Amino acid sequence: MTRRHFLDVDDLTADELADVLNRSGDQAPPQVLAGLGVALLFEKPSARTRNSSEMAVVQLGGHPVTIRGDEVGFDVRETVEDITRTLACYHAAIGARVFQHSFLERMASVSSVPVINLLSDAAHPCQVLADLLTLKQEFGTLTGRRLAWVGDANNVCRSLLAGAALCGMDVSVAAPDGYGLPEDVVAHATARGVHVVTTTKPEEAVDGADAVVTDVWASMGQEAEAARRRADFAGYTVDAALMARAAPHAVFLHCLPAHRGDEVSAEVIDGPQSRVWPEAANRMHAMRGLLWWLSA
């Protein structure tokens, strides 16, 4: 494998991202990981990320080794750097799902094999690969399309901006005061050619959009804030009335898990415009495409 790391979508160029997405659509990939292991380290638990990543490794002929955070003890039993160096002795790549993005940066600084961000507080690039693959399957070309994000401008939203920059897409983000995109993130995306609209009104963001995307209002680790966030996000539910403001061909995406009645209504997530389940399946396909590309 190369020593390229994947900590966010813009670690790839536009051409490299297109290559990853093309490989992701190949249902009969070469067995590039035959006889090799891939370490999948979960400081933060997961359902989709673990299953999709393990199966992607298997489909490339490799052996996934899933490791819980308490089995290694970041900076408790061992330093992040020593854990990484050890795992790199055995594996062709290391995926890590962590609370602090700085852990991934420290891992990448010493690793002799690719480090893949399976999720951090700053970014969720593997999810965004799946989102972009889903939209590519839906629309064919992504250039000129517009995404509308409704809700907390979190790690997924920030990675979507990075992906939009590489695909020639525009993004509208509706978030309550205090939950919007940081100014430097907007400035960075704008400098890379993304037309970014930020608003506190979901209707403004969604009007005419090709895709509407949301996420839970309180993510893992924010459970203590759930009641306050539910009050702050009142009026931000993606329901049928809001979807009706998007383009007639618009689709709905959600990285899951979903809370019906909070960030999305049941009639939307379970309705004809939802592409949530193909999107979930594409987590596996996108990871397979990424690992294949890293091995080239």
List keywords for this structure.
296 residues; alpha/beta; Rossmann fold; 5-stranded parallel sheet; 4-stranded parallel sheet; 13 helices; globular
Could you explain how this protein is built, in words?
This protein has two domains: 9-123, 3-Layer(aba) Sandwich (Rossmann fold); 127-279, Aspartate/ornithine carbamoyltransferase (Rossmann fold, 3-Layer(aba) Sandwich), CATH 3.40.50. The chain is an alpha/beta fold and 296 residues long. 42% of the residues lie in helices and 15% in strands. The model has no long low-confidence stretch (mean pLDDT 96). The chain contains 13 helices and nine strands. It has helices spanning 14-24, 48-59, 69-72, 80-90, 101-110, 125-139, 155-167, 183-191, 202-206, 226-232, 240-243, 266-269, 276-295, and strands at 37-42, 63-68, 93-97, 115-119, 146-150, 170-174, 196-199, 211-214, 251-254.
